[in-house]
Amino acid sequence: MARSTGARITQPPPRRAAIIAGLRTPFVRAGTDFAQLDVLELARSVTVELMQHSGLAPSDVDHVIYGNVTRPVRYSNLARELVLAAGLPKTTPADTVTLACASACQAITDGTNLIERGYADVVIVGGVEMLSNVPITLSPPLARTLVAASQARSFGARLQTLARPSLGLADLVPVAPSITETSTGLSMGQSAELMAKLNGISRADQDAWAFSSHQKAAAAWADGRLAAEVAPVYVVNDGGCAVVRDNHIRADTSLEKLGALRPVFDRQYGTVTAGNSSPLTDGAATVLLMSTEKAAALGLTAKALVRSYAYSAVDPAGQLLIGPAYAIPKALARAGIDLTDIDLVEMHEAFAAQVLSTLQKLASPEFAERELGRSKAVGSLDPGIINSRGGSIALGHPFGATGARCVLTLANEMELQSAQVGLVSVCAAGGVGAAIVLERV
Ligand SMILES: CC(C)(COP(=O)(O)OP(=O)(O)OC[C@H]1O[C@@H](n2cnc3c(N)ncnc32)[C@H](O)[C@@H]1OP(=O)(O)O)[C@@H](O)C(=O)NCCC(=O)NCCS
After folding, report:
1. I want to staple 300 with a disulfide (CB 3.0 to 4.6 A). Which of 65, 247, 295, 362 is the partner?
2. Which atom, in ligand 1's list, is nearest to the CA of 273?
3. What is the pLDDT of residue 8?
4. Which pTM was predicted?
């Protein structure tokens, strides 16, 4: 594939982080196949499978970094529990990272930093989300009352504390985590709706993108590409079963069916529907990162190396999910390449409106000049090189795992196609954007 001259050639660091292997669980709609499972079990299951597939000795693992967003109350550091549950040496340090939908990107780039600095040779990275079992908490007044009651010295004093008249009925209602921006009060879907309106993204274009996502995902299951990156999960409750496939992909959807769905987030004038949004999903993905020296010593072949990465953030009150339009040019510049050098892209599809808005901004000379201080547009991406195995709209989007799923799929597809340079981008709550450049050398 043709390579153009890069804008600024940045030499890669002397030590390189390689993607050696990875696996993910099936991604399933929240409340379905994994509803009985604990989040740790989901992460453990795929990590143990990966260790067995890779043939790596547990003692070779230097560090574990795992992404998770809806943090379970009982695990203050899920990654460390993963070490203990997966049978890795008890002496393996581990940390849990959260960066909304880009949490696993953060895990991967943190792992890359450890390797490039020479602080680690083997890092297990990834992420998990279990939206079937989100931590439900108590309202602050009820929580304070219960804590005070637990500290009371006698049964009578405890009853008296509990009977405090200050608690209203509303205080007794459990509080579930929401996918709403704290600073704006808008949900992700409402923000996507706003982006569709501001950027003039049509309903037909959103539906066409969603349709293509399902078609590509169905094709990638049919030809075995997705089966090769998905490990079964064994659910032992209710008689037990093996969950082996994603369950949101609709091979039989059509533009007509998509076009008939009602908008969800702006019922009257909206264009964002259940069909062109990513669904609430359970799933986990684990990736084996290794220094190239260690891989060579173990006789392992890298699928791809991490070349560069970048994060960005925008005002959540503006276009909440446009972060990748800022992170992508930053990551490209750090790699010393242009968008035209990119052979394959994995772009997280929170909503079709968000993907199409990002592509529009990348191709816009006005955006480049006004927002990036560049004399020309970042560039136009050919949709044919984006999300070869389908994207989050079809596959699903377990928040904490999606970044690892994107990196894993990109590395696999780059290996399959002998592609030289690939790009991952993920938008995230808080107005954050993440971009990671992979290369094969
Ligand atoms: C959009 C959302 C509210 C839809 O939830 P939902 O109503 O449970 O969605 P469903 O899957 O039940 O779909 C609703 C209907 O659309 C239909 N549908 C959905 N996708 C379809 C498709 N591709 N083709 C045909 N029909 C489809 C379903 O069959 C269902 O029909 P029914 O009501 O007749 O059963 C939910 O998925 C959501 O909140 N997504 C956004 C998640 C998010 O914010 N993520 C953060 C990103 S940063």
Report:
1. 295
2. 1
3. 57
4. 0.94
